[in-house]
Amino acid sequence: MSVFLARSSGVAIVMAFSAQAALADVTAKDVWSDWKSYMTATGYAVSGTETMSGDTLTISDISMAMPEMEEDTKGTFTLPDIKFVENGDGTVNIMLPAEMPMVFEMDGPDGVVSGTILYTHDGSPMLVSGDADEMTYDYASSLMNISLTNLDVPKEDIPADTFELSMALTNVVTKTIMTKTDVRTYNQTVTSETLGFDATFKEPEGDGNGSFKGAMQGVSFAGTTTVPDGLESPDMAALLRGGFTAEGTFDFASGNSAIAGQDGADTFALDSKTEGGTIAFDMGVDGLTYDVKQNRTETNITSSDLPFPLALSMAEAGFKLTMPVSKSDEEQDFALGVLLRDFDVPEMLWGMVDPAGTLPHDPATIAVDLAGKAKLAFDFFDPKAMAEVEAGEQAPGELNALTVKALEVSVAGAALTGTGDFTFNNNDLESFDGMPAPAGEANLKLVGANSLLDKLISMGLVSDSDAMGARMMMGMLAVPGDGDDTLTSKIEVTEDGQIKANGQRIK
């Protein structure tokens, strides 16, 4: 169901953001034909009744059958009439209804799930200009809204107001340039004054409810998509092998959100605001990359389970993922990065564990930056192959190398930093209990650990015996470094399975 909803919601966004950039040519009929070709190339089967009257082509009874997502699962959705009006000057206006309900159905083993995605706007036309090889689409609307209505789930009696989901944009301006050679390339920009979202849920039988609302200001997007033509099997794995690529960057200047929930007497609420951020993505046969960054964020939490409200803040948060998506016998790159910079908790919370102010109350930071090489033994976007991996019938692949480009953990006056570089022998699964045998070294630096232990002892949070055990462990693995209360450690793993700490063998 989730894949179907993602695809059907994607069509609504296609309409809303002009990603149907294939809707272009010098005549109305060619525009419609080109749009069908685009949708067919991405896996849809499109049909509709064509009626030409004067300079206007009306397409009615539009049906779009989605590509098979899972075994014994089929999906379709239908659209209301769309008009293509020839302006007489070599341009075409695409007229979408001011209220455009798109009805979807997914027929699977558990029955038919159906609903409506309602797209509304101010009725402005989309202007198509250019020629058959390069067409430009310009569209502007004071208001656009996408909402989910009339959700019907098999064997479930769901009241109409149980679940509501909507997204609204104001003062939207989009431009899409479609270039058609041996592939279709779309260069697109979108700006919007605000982007708001609103989701609510009510428990059908009970008094539980929840909501997630928020808005972003100063929204912009720029991206490029390349779509191959003429594929016999236009699933995502085949599209990638055929040359499909997509990359883009989404920016916003500021944002705010609110999450609330209630279950009987239990309540929870979270409000946050941020000074903006960026979401970038890049996908192709060579891999998939996400790079998410968010500037200063302030969060307030209240709950019936908490004795007082919490106010948290963070200067910067980030997440980066690079992963292979295509089966290959060759090594491919992967990467993972997590950043929580200057995470601060309120003094009231510090006061519960450190009322005397013994510990430094400086903001904490966690930063990890990993990279490596791996072989993927299946196509990530192939549903059958993924099912085999989940069932244990197919090995996912091999880990060949891992580099710790940066490690930083700092809290309460202590800080751990380090780097590392390892390779892995997938033919040796015995030396390390089923894990491919590593070989390489890590270099670590720990500052302030002994001072932190002393303070924890004075606070009664750590016993003398526990602290002694920790110091003995640090003495085995580390040596004094430059500066006060500084330890360094070089951990080596040799190809014959030995582990050494600062040159001393410990395994």
From TrEMBL:
It holds the Pfam family DUF2125. Residues 1-24 form the signal peptide. The keyword Signal applies. Keywords: Signal. This is DUF2125 domain-containing protein.
